[in-house]
């Protein structure tokens, strides 16, 4: 009863929390389960063995029976069918029954028998004047119809099997014609042509049987063997027997007498044959047959129903450069033009064709022209099914697709789709009907995908000027907008948009095509003739585009702007097509709105506020300043949505931020210039060119030296630098210096002949670009009116014909005369050359390689006009503009300049062109030294200043601020505010005889307390016109 010290008597405790009995139970259950599985596996193994043995014994018996029947056949008819006559093909003969029973495509003897049988068949049918029915069914074929049909469909399939099985041995015979009847392949194919004749009563059953046995997959492998065997003999230009058989089979399917069952789309003609690369080059007759309206309608409709769900089932047995869907697309497009040109081509076929080609085009990677003529999206990953991999198409396949979507095809497609749709807008309240919605959806879906995939330059002009696309789309868009009801896409195109708004797809096509029209149309057509749209319609369009763009860029959460690059057809876009189309529409609408704004700036037809979004408020502006925000991205992509004054505030705040950061790092590193007033350009060039980019952003202090070599009085606190900037820019951009020229409107642009005057002219243009950028960087307005076409170079934009009037109005008139010339332009003896005349030296340049031998005709006159415009507006000043831009971008970031169009950029440089607003200056003036706003001297001063001419008012402003122009947004933004200080404490004759002085660094006027208005006016006029530099300061 007491503890003995022996631990063995302790109770065992399982630390796992389970008893040993429970543990043993689990072990028994596991062993039982394993034993049960083992017995199940043994039963399955035994069952499988029994099935294998049963199959083997069955096949062995069948083979034995085949051999027995084969031997009997040879004894009866002979190995070479010597004992066969025409009666052997009748319903009562055992000849065909036995042959079909024992025929084995792997047995060469059976193949020989089959070939000999086909030879006899062809001869017998010819002997009985083509009466195949009488040969096979006898005089009364009704009781034997099913038996005959069964035998012949099996016999037909045996012929195809024989060709397929021995395709490598017979590869030299596969392209032979029927005339070469000695070849075994030709004999088999000729027999097929006889058996599948659509006039025969069993033809439908025979073709249906072949379809069920996936005969097109066998034909595919035969054709690929032909393509691989480049030495295949055949009569090229003639129709081969194989081509005739294919044409016969595809012509039967889908025709009105046909009762064949629908074949699995994976094994159809479209999936198996049309996915062979360049099939029409091999079989041109087959192409002609397929291009018939009825066949194209049937097969296109068949592809429409299956291609979207079974694209991943298309064959991929050739190479990665020839994906099945790309080959299918190329072959369909190559025949589509012929089918669309048929007089009985239906609207439904055009819809089906657009649906199929749209889906297949959408699966393609972006294609570039081999000559790199056009810039499209970059190469990216491609998604087929669930796999992602890089895909590069064969160049010939790319060319087939590009060449097929030509002007003829687009015209035919547009004519069929829009044939019954009016391009003239009727009642605004009329809602588009189902046919119009289907036509617009088909055209827009096809073109949207085409724009994303193919080089579009060659087709844009056709779409813009030779089809009714723009008026039809505009009519549709305007009515939908007026009724606030956008019809949803038909089901076959719905995968492109999902639940996205219905206006996305029409705008994705309308905007780039209309934008292309605006690049070609001239000013008279747009403003006077109001082509292609009336100005009223353009105003309505601006409203629609503005609202759509705001929805895309600000309202829709998924539509984050894409700035700087065109939308590419990437793998991400394949996975997210709705987001992709959001981005694309955002881009094309922004580009069109920007172009319409340019047209409005040339000649205003709508208030500038029509371009401003309604949702821009103080919160938006505060967000736009911060990088990485949606508002900032909108500012970069669509700055016209934001009022000009708001963008100027953002711009000035960005500049102030950079100056503040630069000043914090360079408090003690000031650059000091010593400038001789009579050598201001040379001194500024030498000293500014020596500064680095960081130094240019820092403070620069200037000391002027007068004509006597004496430094002028005055310490530069910023005012002298402003005076220096105004003087240097006036001198550097003076046309007398030879770097710039003036237009008829006295606007400046680079002198194309500047190199003939200055050896280092390009270095000077770099310096002038830096100089202008420094003025803008410091917020200094300069009186330099640049030509708009030159300002576009600061935005890295291209100039077009519409910009030419500002440079050479006479040349523009001549080009417009050519554009509208009704006679034969070739009689004018014009060639693709242009004559340059600089300083009396004439040079001739070709506009195209060999241009001196290319005569201008009615066909190429538009090209000539735009090449001339390009030469004058872009090519001649390309070097000067490029170096100017490099210097300009040392201080001015591209993002800053892109916020403004050319006309707004002009205002940023030289300020408002209106007269100086004296009332605004008075409202934003401070007073010191005893003066106040109601002081009698102050009242006299404002009366005198108001009485000054504009020129003298600008001189006064330069006298007190160092700059002859006020701040762009008004004197409220003058830093520091203008101040008038009393110049003397005690009034005396000596005091009253003093002139007004200024401190331009503080925008300060020191004004003595003159007693009369006349005295104040005389003294002030003398001070501002003395041109004494800073000696009076």
From TrEMBL:
Basic and acidic residues bias (residue ranges): 8-26
Region (Disordered) location: 1-26
Any Pfam family the entry gives: HECT
Active site location: 1001 (glycyl thioester intermediate)
Domain HECT: 692-1033
UniProt entry keywords in alphabetical sequence: Transferase, Ubl conjugation pathway
CDD domains per record: HECTc, IQCD
InterPro entries linked to this entry: E3A/B/C-like, HECT_dom, Hect_E3_ubiquitin_ligase
Domain of life: Eukaryota
SMART domains: HECTc (SM00119)
EC number: 2.3.2.26
Catalytic activity: S-ubiquitinyl-[E2 ubiquitin-conjugating enzyme]-L-cysteine + [acceptor protein]-L-lysine = [E2 ubiquitin-conjugating enzyme]-L-cysteine + N(6)-ubiquitinyl-[acceptor protein]-L-lysine
PANTHER family cross-referenced by the UniProt entry: E3 UBIQUITIN-PROTEIN LIGASE UPL6 (PTHR45700:SF6), UBIQUITIN-PROTEIN LIGASE E3C (PTHR45700)
Protein name: HECT-type E3 ubiquitin transferase
Organism taxonomic ancestry: Eukaryota, Viridiplantae, Streptophyta, Embryophyta, Tracheophyta
């Amino acid at each position: 009863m007491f503890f003995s010290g022996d631990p063995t008597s302790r109770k065992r405790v399982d630390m796992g929390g389970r008893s040993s009995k429970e543990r043993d139970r689990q072990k028994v259950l596991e062993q039982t389960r394993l034993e049960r599985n083992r017995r199940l596996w043994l039963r399955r193994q035994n069952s499988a063995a029994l099935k294998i043995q049963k199959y083997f014994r069955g096949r062995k018996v069948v083979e034995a029976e085949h051999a027995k029947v084969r031997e009997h056949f040879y004894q009866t008819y002979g190995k070479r069918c010597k004992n066969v006559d025409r009666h052997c093909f009748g319903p009562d003969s055992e000849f065909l029954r036995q042959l079909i029973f024992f025929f084995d495509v792997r047995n060469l003897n059976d193949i020989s028998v089959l070939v000999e049988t086909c030879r006899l068949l062809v001869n017998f049918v010819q002997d009985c004047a083509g009466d195949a029915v009488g040969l096979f069914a006898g005089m009364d074929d009704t009781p034997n119809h099913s038996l005959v049909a069964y035998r012949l469909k099996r016999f037909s399939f045996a012929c195809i099997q024989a060709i397929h099985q021995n395709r490598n041995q017979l590869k030299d015979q596969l392209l032979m014609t029927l005339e070469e009847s000695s070849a075994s392949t030709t004999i088999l194919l000729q027999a097929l042509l006889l058996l599948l004749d659509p006039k025969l009563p069993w033809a439908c059953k025979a073709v249906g049987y072949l379809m069920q046995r996936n005969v097109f997959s066998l034909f595919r492998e035969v054709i690929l063997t032909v393509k691989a065997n480049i030495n295949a003999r055949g009569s090229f230009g003639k129709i081969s027997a194989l081509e005739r058989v294919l044409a016969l089979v595809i012509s039967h399917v889908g025709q009105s007498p046909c009762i064949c069952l629908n074949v699995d789309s994976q094994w159809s003609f479209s999936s198996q044959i049309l996915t062979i690369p360049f099939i029409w080059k091999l079989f041109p007759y087959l192409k002609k047959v397929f291009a018939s309206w009825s066949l194209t309608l049937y097969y296109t409709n068949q592809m429409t129903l299956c291609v979207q769900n079974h694209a991943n089932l298309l064959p991929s047995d050739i190479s990665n450069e020839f994906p099945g869907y790309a080959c299918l697309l190329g072959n369909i497009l190559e025949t589509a033009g012929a089918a669309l040109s048929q007089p009985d081509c239906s609207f439904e076929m055009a819809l089906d064709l657009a649906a199929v080609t749209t889906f297949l085009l959408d699966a393609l990677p972006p294609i570039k022209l081999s000559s790199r003529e056009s810039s499209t999206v970059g190469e990216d990953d491609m998604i087929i099914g669930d796999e992602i991999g890089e895909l590069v198409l064969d160049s010939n396949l790319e060319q087939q697709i590009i060449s097929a979507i030509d002007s003829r095809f687009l015209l035919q497609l547009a004519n069929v789709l829009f044939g019954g749709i009016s391009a003239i807008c009727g009642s605004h309240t009329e809602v588009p009907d189902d046919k119009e919605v289907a036509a617009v959806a088909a055209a827009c879906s096809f073109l949207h995908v085409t724009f994303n995939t193919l080089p579009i330059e060659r087709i844009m002009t056709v779409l813009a000027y030779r089809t009714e696309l723009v008026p039809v789309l505009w009519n549709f868009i305007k009515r939908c907008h007026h009724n606030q009801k956008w019809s949803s896409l038909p089901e076959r195109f719905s995968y492109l948009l999902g639940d996205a708004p219905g206006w996305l797809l029409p705008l994705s096509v309308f905007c780039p095509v209309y934008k292309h029209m605006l690049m070609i149309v001239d000013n008279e057509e747009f403003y006077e003739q109001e082509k292609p749209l009336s100005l009223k319609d353009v105003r309505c369009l601006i409203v629609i585009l503005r609202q759509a763009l705001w929805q895309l860029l600000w309202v829709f959460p998924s539509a984050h702007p894409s700035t700087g690059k065109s939308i590419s057809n990437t793998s991400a876009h394949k996975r997210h097509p709705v987001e992709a189309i959001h981005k694309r529409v955002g881009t094309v609408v922004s580009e069109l709105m920007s172009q319409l704004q340019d047209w409005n700036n040339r000649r205003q037809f709508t208030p500038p506020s029509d371009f401003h979004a309604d949702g821009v408020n103080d919160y938006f502006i505060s967000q736009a300043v911060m990088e990485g925000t949606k508002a900032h991205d909108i500012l970069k992509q669509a700055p016209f949505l934001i009022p000009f004054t708001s963008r100027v505030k953002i711009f000035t705040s960005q500049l102030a931020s950079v100056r503040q950061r630069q000043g914090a790092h360079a408090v003690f590193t000031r650059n000091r210039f010593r400038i001789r007033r009579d050598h201001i350009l040379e001194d500024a060039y030498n000293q500014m060119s020596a500064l680095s980019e960081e130094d240019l952003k820092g403070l620069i202090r200037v000391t002027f030296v007068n004509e006597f070599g004496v430094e002028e009085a005055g310490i530069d606190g910023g005012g002298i630098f402003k005076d220096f900037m105004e003087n240097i820019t006036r001198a550097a951009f003076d046309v007398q210096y030879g770097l710039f020229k003036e237009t008829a409107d006295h606007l400046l642009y680079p002198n194309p002949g500047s190199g003939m005057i200055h050896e280092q002219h390009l270095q000077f243009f770099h310096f002038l670009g830096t100089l202008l950028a420094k003025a803008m960087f410091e917020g200094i307005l300069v009186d330099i009116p640049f030509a708009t076409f030159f300002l576009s170079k600061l935005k890295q934009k291209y100039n077009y014909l519409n910009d030419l009037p500002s440079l050479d109005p006479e040349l523009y008139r001549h080009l417009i005369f050519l554009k509208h010339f009704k006679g034969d332009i070739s009689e004018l003896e014009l060639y693709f050359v242009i004559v340059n005349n600089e300083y009396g030296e004439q040079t001739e340049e070709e506009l195209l390689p060999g241009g001196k031998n290319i005569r201008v005709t009615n066909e190429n006159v538009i090209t000539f006009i735009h090449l001339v415009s390009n030469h004058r507006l872009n090519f001649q000043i390309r070097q000067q503009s490029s170096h100017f831009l490099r210097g300009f971008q040392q201080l001015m970031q591209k993002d800053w300049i892109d916020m403004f169009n050319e006309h707004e950029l002009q205002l940023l440089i030289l300020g408002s062109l209106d007269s100086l607003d004296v009332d605004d200056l008075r409202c934003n003036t401070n007073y010191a030294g005893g003066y106040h706003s109601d002081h009698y001297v102050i009242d006299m001063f404002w009366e005198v200043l108001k009485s000054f001419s504009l020129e003298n008012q600008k001189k006064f402003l330069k006298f007190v601020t160092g700059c002859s122009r006020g701040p762009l947004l008004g004197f409220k933004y003058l830093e520091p505010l203008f101040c008038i200080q009393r110049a003397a404490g005690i009034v005396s004759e000596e005091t009253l005889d003093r002139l007004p002085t200024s401190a331009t660094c503080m925008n300060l006027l020191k004004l003595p307390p003159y007693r009369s208005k006349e005295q104040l006016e005389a003294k002030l006029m003398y001070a501002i016109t003395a041109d004494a530099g800073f000696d009076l300061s």
